[in-house]
């Protein structure tokens, strides 16, 4: 435990870091589990199960034919952004049959990352709509898959009809520094909104 000087040689415990909850959402196979795993400083909790023949009619693997597992509850990870700031990451399941879990996962969340794949951009509409309807601030992170076309931010924004205040960032869900940039964007966006309201 880190100690702070309290005067006259006395010490007191340093205050506990502020803990914030963020969601990571998006369509099936967009890279949510990969993103949480890339940045988590602890071994991430994963609730993945193998895709089966029974799920083939409801799990559209178009564009992600190599996908063999799927998240059935959540992913969980943790990252310390600063000595006084810790983020807890909750990755949501992508298929609509698991959306009933989203309300519970979203409870108390500061904000969210909506991960998008430009090859299947329509798959993130549900997540965008979910956070807009509930007033939860989010950053749209375009996961730059190998071989996927790159589009300017304004084209992605227009395709999804995003509000001007929603940050759009290109990222690589496999790269820790890239993911940290996305998470910092969510936190800064939320703090700016809170400061404006208090202002």
Automatic annotation (TrEMBL):
InterPro entries reported in the protein's UniProt record: Gliding_Motility_GTPase, Gpn, P-loop_NTPase
Keyword annotations of the record: GTP-binding, Hydrolase, Nucleotide-binding
Superkingdom assignment: Bacteria
Keyword Hydrolase included in the entry's annotation: yes
Alphabetized Gene3D superfamilies for the sequence: P-loop containing nucleotide triphosphate hydrolases (3.40.50.300)
Keyword GTP-binding: yes
CDD domains in alphabetical order: Ras_like_GTPase (cd00882)
SUPFAM superfamilies attached to this UniProt entry: P-loop containing nucleoside triphosphate hydrolases
Pfam families: ATP_bind_1
Sequence similarity: Belongs to the GPN-loop GTPase family.
Protein name per the record: ATP/GTP-binding protein
